[in-house]
Every structure is written in C-alpha cells, then in structure tokens.
Amino acid sequence: MKGLLFKDFLLIRRQGKTLLYLLVFYVIFFFVLARSSDKPADSGTVAGVVSTIAVILEYVLILNTLAYDENSKWNRYALSLPVGRNGIVGAKYLFVLLFSAAMGALSLLAEAVLLRGRMTGTDAAAVLGVSCLSPLVLCAVLLPVVYRFGLQKTRFVLAAVFLIPWLLSSALKNHAAAVPWEMILRFSPLAAALLFAGSYFLSCRLYAGREAE
Amino acid sequence: MENLLEIRGLCRSYAGFSLEDVSFSLPAGSIMGLVGENGAGKTTTIRLILNELRREGGSVRIFGEDNIRGEIRAKEQIGVVFDECCFHGGLRAGDVGEILRRVFKTWDGALFGKYRREFELPEKKKISEYSRGMKMKLSIAAALAHRPRLLILDEATSGLDPVARSGILDILLDFIQDERRGVLFSSHITSDLERIADFVTYLHAGRVVFSRPKDDLLDRCGILRCGASQLGGLDKSGFVRFLRGPTECAALVEDKDAARKKYPGLVIDPASLDEIMLLYAKGEQP
Amino acid sequence: MTGADSDVIVYTRYTRLCGKGALPLDIVLSTAGGKPLYAQIAGQIEDQILAGTLAPGEPLPSMRALARMLRISVITTKRAYADLERGGFLVTVAGKGCFVARKSPGLLRGERQRRALGALRGAVRTAKRAGLPLEELEKALAEIYNEES
C-alpha cells in the first residue's frame, strides 16, 4: 500500500508544479483586485476565495490521479502486485486523507499570508474545514461510484458531485444567517470522517465484485 | 521437481465466450508457451491465475497454494509483463523503481539499476517519450527486479521487432538458469516458442487441445501432403486432423515415422507449431 | 498450403564453450535436415569424443548451461545427455556435473567399429531397395574405400 500511496504523491508532484503556478496566479490576481477596490479585503471574502481555489485544485489533482490510473492500464497492473484489492482501495483513500490534510494546512497558510495575520478564528476554521473536509466528502461520494463503474462511465456523476455543493451554497447565500454555522463547523469533521470511513468499506465491497477492464 | 503452477478444470464464462475444463501444470525450471489464436482464452486464463477474474470452477495452485487464499504471498514472487507498458507516462524509469521498492519485500534496487543500464533506458526521459521496445524493456526490468520465482508474460513480445524479441528470449533463458523458477509465456508468435519453450499448451476456443513437451510435439508430429484427388482413397484413421485444399490436402499425423512407413509414396514433413495449430483450428476430424 | 521447401532456411548455431580449463566445444545445429536437435547434439559430441577432440574426464557444460548457449529448450539437452550417458560416453557426477567418460582405447575402437557396421547396414538396406546386386555393391565399396583417404 505504501508504494501506491507514494505513486499518487509522485504524480501530484509531477503535475503539481503547473497547478502551483496557476494557484499563485489566482492569488496574485485576487490580491491585486482587492488592492484596486476601495473596500479593504474582507477576511471572509479572502477565506472564501482561498477555500474555493483549494477545493478546485484538490478536485482536479485527485481526479487526475484516477484518470492516470485508468488511462495507463495501471489498474490492471496493480492487481498483479502483492497489494490486494482492499490495499488498492485503501491506498487511494489514504492518499485523499493525507492530501486533504496537506492542502488544508497550505490553505490556512495562504490565508494567513494574504490577510497578513489578521485572521479571525472562525475564518481560519472555515478555511481549514472547507479545504480539508471537502475532498473527503466529495471522494466519499465519488470513489465508490468510480470503483463500481470505472472513471469513464461516471463523467456526469463527476459534474454533479461538483455542482451540487456549489448550487447548495448559492441557494443558501441569502439565508446565511439562518444556517447554524457554529454547529456545522463543530460536527463536520466527525461527520466527514464517518462518511469517509463508511465510503471506504463500501468501495472495498464494490471493487471486490468488479472484474478487471 | 515441484509444479510452480497447477491448474485443474478451470472454468469461466462470459458473454459470447467460455473457458472450460482448462488443466495444465508448469514444472519448476521450465518455460511453457501458452499458444492459441486471438480470443482463444490465453489472456482469460492468465487473468484467472492472477485472480483478476473470479473463476467459476476448478482450481489454481501457485507454488502449491490456492491462488486466492495465498494471493498476496504468491504475488510477492510473481513477475508479470503485459502487452502494454502499465506505468504512467509522466513518470520516469527511476520513479518506477522508487514505487516498486515500496511494494515488493524482495525488491533489489541494484538489480533494477543494472537492467536499466543494460537496456539503455534513459534516466531523465518521461515514459511517454519511450519507444515501444523501451517500454517493454522497462516492464521486464520491473518484473525481474524483485527476483520472482514465476514470470508470466501476456503477449509481451507482440509489438516488437525480431531483434528486440530475440533479446527478450535471451533474458528468459537467463532467468530459467535457476531451476526453481519458471516462465509462462503466452503468445501468438509461435516462432519464439518453437525455439525456447520446454512445454507447449495449446488453447483453442476456450479448451486445452494439448499440453505436452515441445520437443515431443515437434519431433513426432508430421504433416502429410497429398493431392486433392488422392485424399478420398487414403486410410484416414491415423490422421489427427486434415484439411482439404483446392489442389492439395494436408493432414496432421501424430507419428511421422510410422506414417512414412504407412504411406510410402507421400510427402510427410516435420510439422511446425503454426501448421499444427492451423490444422487443429481449421481441419476436420476423421 | 505452403510446402517445406519454401522455408529451408538452414539455421545454424555455433557454440564454443570457453570455461575455466575446458577445451572448446563445437556444436552446429540445423533445423532444416529433419534430424531432431537432441540427436544432432548427441551425435556431434559423440563424434568429438571418438575423434579425441574431447578428452576423457573433461567437463562438459551442464544441461541448462548448454541449453542457454544454444538457445534451446533444456529438455532437448537433457535428452541428448541422457542418450550420451546410455551410450557410455558421458558420466554424471553428483554435485560436480557431467564429464566425458574415461574409456580404454580398445572400447573406443570397438565403438567406432560398431558405428561403421551400423552405417554399412543402412547402406545395404538402401542398396537393396534400389535393386543393386551384391557384386556391384562390393565393387562400389572398393572404389569408395580407395577414394577416401
């Protein structure tokens, strides 16, 4: 399992450079934009921007690793390795977990830099929470589908998984005060963790029943 | 001498194809060629051995143990080479070594490096820029560097030129110098197997037609040729299969020396693996 | 259907054993003649032993090493060595390998005579099939004997 984990991080590193440039560009862009406006950079807005970029990055990078696996026939090769189907699934889930944690830390750092330390506790928690937990939730839903149907067949599900949270947040924007943010923040890590763990067991089950391409 | 691989009554069916009652054994220290036309079931058999596909009947024992119960243990000692290179194009040769080092307990980094230099695989180039032959050599290096006992090749030489194929045959011959190892080599390029295989298992339409020592097969079998008009008058009881052509007919005989005595006037040539397969596939039974 | 004459590509393999202390071992294989590979190997090694090129007590490559050098199946070399051992030309010493058997010159001569008579028997059979009478055969024998020097 260690080897597969290493492989995913290696792939991220290989493509991460390009995306890091993108990230830096976005950050600079928003920074300049904020500077040029009259209003001072609202802590909340910055948090939102950083979180959005983080989530987009995570989503793209994780999906890329899945796509690489399928395109290069790696999945078939992995089944010939002394890892086992559960090991293959476990490595992917572990990768998402570790990657999310890393991105969470990075996002927090980015936010701190952008706000030059003037960060509220809630904002920090929000950024950390969103960039850490979003991939967990997204993958908890996505991975079982991928392990059951393969990446090619699940394109529309990919779009849905990304669009739904965005639509949800758009719909809730006007009722932001009514949403119990504190409670959500407090319970979301546990909920995400449970969802993620449950998803792992489901994926193992589904992958065990799936024949190789 | 133990059998590295023991397959008994293997069965598996899916849409439009079924593998039935496949049985053969690979003794240690030998190279077995798995031959058959495209779609005969060679890749399905290998998938069943590796438990990529679940079998519906029969048994598969690797190193004496059931292939499902001892799956992880067995795969530590199996090296597999597929017809395509399975590594991500963005990686480099060294990356593959680093990944597999963390996968196999018996990975030998120095050996991998030795193969890399021997095969002249560049360090800095991405795998996506490799030629087909280089990709295959990388796959082989990756399969050999953890010192497996069983090497399985699934159509690994299909896209290579004769020089590259010859190089791979040499690698297999070197591999088998250790008597505890074995090679299962699935291919439809019969000339490679005619040279170095110790045993040949021929699959046709999902069934094993024969599984026997290659020397025995090629030394004994013969192709009898006669004119189209002569066929009617011949005693066909000794024929394994025969094929009617417009001007000439050919028949596969199990014992060509005996056939020469039985049909003194006729041409009886040694049979090549291709001709044997062709007659089994297209010929009639007497 | 293609006939055998379209692919008479005489495939030959020349092999020399260059090991520590071992004399060169020449084996040339052909896949066109129809003679099985194991018979060719056994025959050529036998010839070299009878000719004295391979001295008694000399080490021979292991079956596996020979198969590697000739790029053929190890079952083939195994059979060749088995034939040689049965014929008394080769001995296997457990743990050490295969060696040319030590034979007295008398036994060797007897071996050669046996082979000559065997070849003669074959010639007589062929001659009879061709309808050659005994006197003509004797005349031909004398001629050929004097030709070959």
Helix/strand structural class of chain B: alpha/beta
Helix/strand order of chain C: EEHEHHEEHH
Q: Which residue ranges of chain C are poorly predicted, with pLDDT under 50 across at least 5 consecutive positions?
A: 1-23
> In one word, what is the shape of chain C?
elongated
Strand content of chain C: 5-15%
CATH uppermost class of the largest domain in chain B: Alpha Beta
Compressed to H and E, one letter per element, the order of chain B equals EEEHEEHEHHHEHEHEEHEEEHEH
How does the helix and strand content of chain C classify structurally?
mainly alpha
Work out the helix count of chain B.
Answer: 10
Largest sheet of chain C: 3 strands, antiparallel
Please tally the β strands of chain C and state the result.
5
CATH architecture of the largest domain in chain B: 3-Layer(aba) Sandwich
Number of helices of chain C: 5
Instruction: State the domain count of chain B.
Output: 2
pLDDT below 50 for ≥5 consecutive residues: which ranges of chain B? none
Write down the Rg of chain B. Answer: 21 Å
Superfamily (CATH H level) name of the largest domain in chain B: P-loop containing nucleotide triphosphate hydrolases
> Span from first to last CA of chain C?
46 Å
Give the strand order of the largest sheet of chain B, numbering strands 1, 2, ... along the chain: 6-7-8-3-9-10
At CATH level 3, the topology of the largest domain in chain C is: Arc Repressor Mutant, subunit A
What is the total number of structural domains of chain C? 2
